Fold each of these.
Amino acid sequence: MINSLAKPFVRFVERYYPDPYIFALLLTFLAYIMAFLFTDTTFIGAVTAWGGGFAGLMAFIAQVGFTLLSSSALANTRPVKRFLQKIAGLPNSAATSYALAAFVTAIASLIAWALGLIAGGILARHIQYQAQKKGIKVHYPLLVAAAYSGFVIWHMGYSGSAQLMVATPGHAMEALIGIIPVSATLFAGYNLLGIVFLVITLPILAALMKPKDSDRIVELSDEVMAQITEEGHAATAKEAPPATFGEKLERMRWINIVAGALMAIFLFNHFSNRGMDLNLNIVNWSFLTLGLLLSNSPIHYVGLINAAAKNVGPILLQYPFYAGLMGLMGGTGLVKVLSEWFIVVANAETLPVFAFWSAGILNMFIPSGGGQWAVQGPIMLGAASSLGVSPAVIVNAVAYGDQWTNMIQPFWSIPLLAVAGLKMRDMMGYCFITLIYTGVVFSVLLLIA
């Protein structure tokens, strides 16, 4: 039954969804039209707000880019990759293959959004490889969609941008709400309940979408199967001995160990003095530390970073346009207009749910947790203050909306698809089912918060 529900969405995405870069440009044009329809902005005013927004996220783009680089490199270190490959051999049926992909990506996404995306892509590729070797019929587009579905809970975990922002001294809204510790957001009881519930049920949902029609199953080609086999042989092959002193230095693992140990001491000191004081910089240094400690040598880690850079490029290309969208929607007052559509019908009990729904819509235009919070947060916090709603709940509500519609916003699927070797329109139709299901779950969580 669930698979039958997914079919219309699969056909819709295959037929109508463009490349993610084109998607970003079309959203820009739509935002211009909406600004002219619903605000009193002029053409020059809209263009100025849009162009002015391009540079507004440069520091954040650098942070996000490094998160993607460092977590991707970590996911491709031999210990982590070997662990993922071992896990990939566990399923003994198509249903358990889909379930495992969703489960592991969900756990990895709670650690870091970028780690979830990269690990999900690697895992999906190797689950499919192992399944085909065993003669198990697994539909690869659904397997990749199952992996991506685990990403829907990333903003409830360790790298949650909005929650880390408001926990950081000097954040933009400190005068309005003060410092909100992660104990009131990420470690709130309802948030932890939601994590446990979704980590259990998302794999079940993925398994229920298993295709019944075996002749429609898409698998890896013989060429890709041979390529994965060759990758395994290359990973175990011995390197040629270094020819120069410089090459010897490049391969001395102790250099990485010392650098990683120094960073680990810094992190230990940070958490010892400040408790669970998480922010995006600390998350990045955590992944850099682990990457240094788990890689084979300095030059090996450089190679991992270079390989990860291929997945960062398409995202960095789109980010200025989404930063421009943020400037356009914030500068023209469009964010305020859209948010107030929900605020005017809300009361103290329903405001978190309406904040969540409005954040889901805005995430289509601003698919950045931190960026979206910067423009929508002040509006929702003002409404929360007037209605007596906890600002911590509003922070989580906006975060839930941000992660929710990522299921149909192709921006963040790029790194996972690059690793998995699949096109966005091949798999995103299945994600509509995840969107509908989690929309209900998040709404209920916020009603009981």
Amino acid sequence: MLTVALSKGRLLEPTVDFLRRAGIEVPEDILSSRRLLAPDSTGSYKFLLVKPTDLPTYVEYGVAAAGICGRDVLLEVTPDLHQPLDLGFGRCTLVLAGKGGGRKENHNLLSTTRVATKYPRITERFFRSRGLPAEVIYLSGSVELAPNLGLAETIMDLVETGRTLRENGLVVLEEVAESTARVVVNRASFHIQQAEVQEFLRRLRKVLE
């Protein structure tokens, strides 16, 4: 039996849909149940539902042999995992955003001192690579409020349509990275459960063809 970790939240429904199209029998109630561990009816798979930011840890430490999460999480956590497949769905962009103005004002915002974000490591790397000083303020949610309340001049956040940014009077200053759903595999499991892992990947690749 292959244990596969799935990200709770925005990626769960499209992930379940993708797995079912791959012929993997995900439990019918997985989207509505409070169960965090759900075996399929064939005895081939066991699904573990975890917070997106925790998923790489569960896979890296072998609790799950494989998992599906966003590239944004992998860029933030930088786990030691195989990343064999980009599944293509859940497309979003990680952006630096702030209260927009003219070109000069936007340039000044890039040289900001305070940035609010759910992605502190990515943000620190971004500003360090530019040689710019930045105080990174970690927030677990509602990051868009920070510039309006004076907590930070800019934010680093994941956007899908940009609607939330616009509703809060923010504009994209720079696109930092693209994110889609990725398959990750524990390095030991890649060899120890080679047959099961390869069959899992084969089914997923079939959908991508």
